[in-house]
Amino acid sequence: MDDTARPLRRPEASVAVEHLGWRYLLARFHTGVAVESPAEAVEVTATAVRAAGPAAEGHLQADLRPGRVLLSLQDAALANVTSVDVDAAARITTALRAAGREADPAVGGRPRSEQSLEIAIDALDIPAVRPFWKAVLAYDDEPGLDGPTDALVDPLGQGPAVWFQQMDAPRPQRNRIHIDLSVPHDEARRRLAAALDAGGRLVNDGRAPAFWVLADAEGNEICICTWQGRD
Asked: Where's the Glyoxalase-like domain (predicted)?
């Protein structure tokens, strides 16, 4: 395999872009750029596309929001990041700085850090329920992941991914859908503390820093996740 097409391991992916103002989340590089108008948002996006060069096709995504442009990089054919995405991130950061702007994941500040949301569905028979969720959400298989138990993704990149967790036995008294929130590794503990201060409780930290399981006052669960501890 051409080394430029080799999916990066999580630790090397994170280290490769952190100094550039990007963060690694769920096999994708993310950053944001502050803007004051739609015209500035278009300008920032054009700068990113020019800087990305050939990698803009099939790698770069831009989401224009009030006050902020969200940029991400991933090889769409691999559903992962490679050295091509690292190089594109470096070129984009350099071009933005030349234009007087910063690639900023806003870790620990305002606006909130870049993050990715997933919905996890516990099921006894995953192949039986997966087609329903694929149809009702109009979702697609991830590239290269089209098995009967694989996750589903929004083809427009607007909604959270949905994945399925195998149950061993029925759990009628416990929620069977929970939220997975992936945050930058250097944001996780601040977010954990904020959730606990807001009335949440820690259910399980046995797999931290891969994830912490939290619950609200009525037992509804969310996992705060990072890339760490998964290799």
From this structure: 119-225
